[in-house]
Sequence to fold (99 residues):
Amino acid sequence: MKFWSNADTPSENTQVPERRLLAAVLQRAITDYLTGDGDLRDSAEAWLIHDLPEDAPLSFKFICEALDLDYPSLKEAIRSQGSTDTNSDVSSICQQAAN
Fold:
């Protein structure tokens, strides 16, 4: 299982505790989806990939918007990494979403 620290995330606006909390929720979900198994992975997949309803508080889309992340690109990057490489990390997903 790969881990990362706050040093792996962009430093701008990370001093706001709410943003750090949202980033931690997102990081945990991505880790669970990429490296988890069974119910843990299924639960993360449901939240990240299927994300219904999208406008619910603390949905994947809500967190992406709150963190100024491109929701469709990040969702696609997570989906493609999850289907091809279970040893991916958040850094590679963010790079793929940025391209």
In short: The mean pLDDT is 80. The chain has one domain: 16-98.
